[in-house]
From TrEMBL:
Sorted UniProt keywords: DNA damage
Matching SUPFAM superfamilies: Methylated DNA-protein cysteine methyltransferase, C-terminal domain
Keyword DNA damage listed: yes
Organism superkingdom: Bacteria
CDD domains: ATase
Segments of this protein annotated with the region Disordered: 1-29, 105-151
Thylakoid listed as a keyword: no
Domain Methylated-DNA-[protein]-cysteine S-methyltransferase DNA binding: 33-91
Xref: Pfam families: DNA_binding_1
Organism: Streptomyces huasconensis
Bias kind Basic and acidic residues: ranges: 1-10, 121-130
Official protein name in the record: MGMT family protein
């Protein structure tokens, strides 16, 4: 499956493994697990986030590291800034781009301490975390439910 980049609006194929990056090895298919992770990332409403562990728990497969790997390889095709670390620290190397998105979407942030490098705010995980319920309401369930289950 080819996804639309949230940032550019252009179609993006998945990134192949480093040794297979030649055009003749390019594929328009994502690995099955990656497809499932990206589907969850696309369900997260603007202004809300899920942790890597939340996504793995929702899928009932893998863990935070596996979700993080998928997002590192294929996340550019979805709203990557909505899948985050559990401590609310912004993705290293992408802090300013993520911060711009969070501000556009009204994602709850916590003021950075003066000791924080670059004084970059953190996500207010208590308020920003999404449980997978319809409407993007405050977190409540331990295991999120897909929005279409609430129709």
């Amino acid at each position: 499956m080819v996804r639309m980049s949230e940032e550019s609006g252009e179609r993006q194929a998945p990134i192949e493994a480093a040794g297979d990056a030649t055009p003749e090895h390019a594929s328009s298919e994502y690995p099955e697990y990656a497809e499932r992770v990206l589907d969850v990332a696309e369900m997260i409403p603007p202004g809300r986030v899920m942790t890597y562990g939340d996504v793995a728990e929702w899928l009932e497969e893998g863990g935070p590291r596996q979700v993080g790997r998928v997002m590192a390889l294929y996340g550019g095709a979805v709203p990557w800034w909505r899948v985050v670390r559990s401590d609310g620290v912004l993705l290293p190397g992408h802090e300013l781009r993520a911060l711009e998105r969070y501000r556009e979407e009204g994602t709850p942030l916590r003021q950075a301490s003066r000791a924080a490098q670059g004084h970059v705010p953190k996500l207010d995980m208590r308020r920003a975390r999404w449980d997978g319920g319809a409407g993007g309401d405050a977190a409540g369930d331990a295991r999120p439910q897909a929005p279409e289950a609430h129709t």
